[in-house]
Write a structure and sequence with these properties.
single chain, about 290 residues, mainly alpha, Endonuclease III, domain 1, Arc Repressor Mutant, subunit A, two-stranded antiparallel ribbon, 15 helices, 2 strands, globular
Length: about 290
Amino acid sequence: MTIDADSLLDWYADNARDLPWRQPGVSAWQILMSEIMLQQTPVARVAPIWQEWVQRWPVPSKMAASSQADVLRAWGKLGYPRRAMRLHECAGVLAREHDDKVPSDVDTLLSLPGIGDYTARAVACFAYGQRVPVVDTNVRRVVARAVHAQADQGSPSRRDLVDVEALLPPNQARAATFSAALMELGATVCVARTPACDRCPLPHCSWHEAGRPALLGEKRKTQKFEGTDRQVRGKLMAVLRESSEPVHRPRLDIVWPQDPGQRDRALDSLLVDGLVEQTVDGRFALAGEGDR
């Protein structure tokens, strides 16, 4: 079974969310920023920060001229701050080697710091309208259900790209819009836990027509956040973002007194990742601010 492109595109034309990075005039660099921010982070949290970044860093060279610490501080609580560091590194490469422009070629995009398979294809598709498969969790879920009659998308594989490319309309412009529509359907209708099948625009769905069979095997456990090293890292980073100068160790120790071992492990991991630096007098600072 395939996915009816006309039905999906008609639905998307009437139901696409009014997201700021979908507006006319948004540059490839600004779309790249949105894609990096949206990785594992909800749209509602990304949108206001993205809009601030567009004003502050409208082109890569503007970001490259800022320090790593400035970018990390502006990243705020989006999570996974290594994304911000890699984007800052990417901005420098774009400014120096690509005339301050984001390339349109997938292979060239893949050569940039911090740009993986999904992001490279998303930029090529959404910024340049190319006919390339763009596969995230939402897309994989829709394809698993509509095409393969499976309740869940399973683990990612290279087969996903083959599956999605086979679904793309031949026309390049329609294919790019189809990719956005497929992703939108998975994000707003064909969601993981409670799919709204009554609102689905697809005339045929293998999973629904098979009686919506349950997921085979054990359900994947939702990853918790409370009490994890990731939560501790976030608390430590918050102290450093909010300080205008390097801080002494006791300022960090108080954020997680219940488990000093976990706190030390989290701090060590931030140092290893290059997100935090230690000054010669033993204080701690965001990357790029340790020499104060």
